[in-house]
Design a protein that fits this description.
It contains 5 helices and 7 strands. With 155 residues, the protein is α+β, with helices and mostly antiparallel strands. The protein has one domain. The strands form 2 sheets. The chain has a 4-stranded antiparallel sheet. The chain has a 3-stranded antiparallel sheet with strand order 6-5-7, sandwiched between helices. A hairpin with a 4-residue loop joins β1 and β2. It is globular, with a radius of gyration of 18 Å. The protein starts with a helix and ends with a helix. The relative contact order is 0.12.
Amino acid sequence: MKRFSIPLLFLAAAVFGLQGAAVLPQDDIESHRSCFHCGMDRKAYGFSRMMIHYEEGTSIGVCSLRCAVVELDANPGRTVKAILAADRTERTLIDAEKAVWVIGGAKRGVMTDRPKWAFATRTSSEAFLESFGGTIITWNEALAAAREDLAREVR
């Protein structure tokens, strides 16, 4: 009986550890509930939220790619450590540069007339395209499009 107790202990620790890891991506909402730039509720817009982590250890939570661009362009001298974007389907944070981005389509965007969505996998982005349309683009294209949209907005 005792020889099963240690493996069971490790199994329980692994299961509870995995449950804790699944909650971690949502911690950004508790620590950054409102968008730093526009004040929108990041929990309500959990499918479009983003996080910017700077090299010196600070983090900024925003509601959308539009507000991420406002943040990045307002701080050109700061070194960015990571930019995370919410997966449109799962609402988990993923590396914005590695995400599969979709621009356009029938699903209304957040803080923009031209929606831009991040997906963790090409499969999930293609499923979105089947339902709502749009075009798959890269992170750099999504960032450039967001900057173009913001420039039109400011005029």
